[in-house]
Design a protein that fits this description.
The complex is a heterodimer. Chain A is α/β, with parallel strands linked by helices. Helices cover about 45% and strands about 20% of the residues of chain A. Chain A has a 6-stranded parallel beta sheet with strand order 2-1-3-4-6-5, with helices on both faces. In chain A, strand 1 (about 25-30), helix 3 and strand 2 (about 50-55) form a beta-alpha-beta unit. The chains are: A alpha/beta, B alpha/beta.
Amino acid sequence: MANAAAGSDALHGAAIIDAIKASGIGYILSVPDIVTSSGLLAPIARDTELRLIRVCKEDECIGIASGLSYCDKRALILIQHTGLFDSLNAVRGIAVEFKQPICMMVGLLQHDPQLPPRGSNRYGVRIVEPILDAMGIAHHLIRADADVAKIRPAIDAAYAEPHAVAFLIGRSPA
Amino acid sequence: MMKRDECFRLLARHITDEAVVATYSSAVDWVGIKPRALNYTSIGAMGLDSSHGLGLALGRPDRRVVVLQGDGSLLMNLGSLVTIAAAAPRNLVHLVAQNDTYEANGGHPIPAPDVDFAGMARAAGYAAVYEFSDVEVFAQQVAHVLEQQGPVFATLHVEPSKPLTYDYPSLYDPAKRKAFKVAWMS
C-alpha cells in the first residue's frame, strides 16, 4: 500500500520532457533551478531535439521567448520561483500587458510536496500562486505524473490566445 | 562626439529587410527616421531589448536583426552580453548608444561614466566588436559593421539629445506588433 502511494506520487522528468516535446516546444530557456536540476535540466541539456539557451538572469528568458514567438517558435522557460519573482516586471510588461505566449516551468524551492503551495512552510512558496492570480496568469501544479497531462493543452492554449502560463513543479522530478 | 539621430540616419541608409529592435530614446529617434513595419519597439521592460533581439535572431537565422539599445538599458541587462555571445547568433547586430545618461528618465547620469561596453562585449565573446566616436568614421564603416558575421557589437559614443517626446502608446501599439509579425514572417 505504501509502495502504491509512493508510485502515484512519483514525478518523472522523462514524462515532462515528452509532454514538452509534444507541445511543440523547441527551445528551453533556463537559469538552473535545484528542484529541476537533475531530473529535467540535465536530461534536457543532453537532448538533441531541444535547444537549451542558458541565460544569466531569468528576465532575459521573457524577452527571448517573446522574440521567438514572433518567429512562430515555441519556448519553455525553466526557472526557480525566486527567478520568477526577479522577473515579475518583465512578466508584467511582456506576458500580461502585451499578451505574449510566455510559458514558464517554475521549481518551488524547498517546498514540501505533501502540502499545497499556499500552505507551504516557506513564505516564498506560499506567495507564488497569489502573485500569479493577482497578475491573471494561469498556473498548474505539477506534483505527480498524473499532472503531466496538463502541460500540452495549457501550452497550446497559451500560444493560441495568446497568454502566459506557469507550471509549478511541486517536487523534484526523478 | 556624435549625435544619436545622426548615426541612425546613416544606419537607415543600409537597413532593408532587417528587424530593428529599439526602445526608449533610441526607439523615438529610430521610428522618426525610419518608420516601418519591421520596427520592434514593444520591449515591455527596460533592458530586455537585447533579449528580444536574441529571440528574433534565433527564430529566424535567415533574417538579420539589429538592436538599438541605450547604455542605461544595457546596464540593466549586462548578462545578456554573455548569453548572446554564448548563443552566438550570426545574424544579430547589437548597437549601443552611449551618452552616459538615463535620458528617458530625466537625464540623470548612469552610475559611472565612460563604461567600456565594447570591452565587455569583447570579453563576453562577441564575434566582432567596434567602437565609434567620429561620425565620419561611422559613415564609412556602418555597412561593413552590418555585414559582419555576428554576434556583432558596437558602441556609438553620442551626446545626450535634445528633449524627446516619448509616445509610448504608439511605441507599444498592439497593431504595430501584429504588423511586425506579418512583415517578419513574410
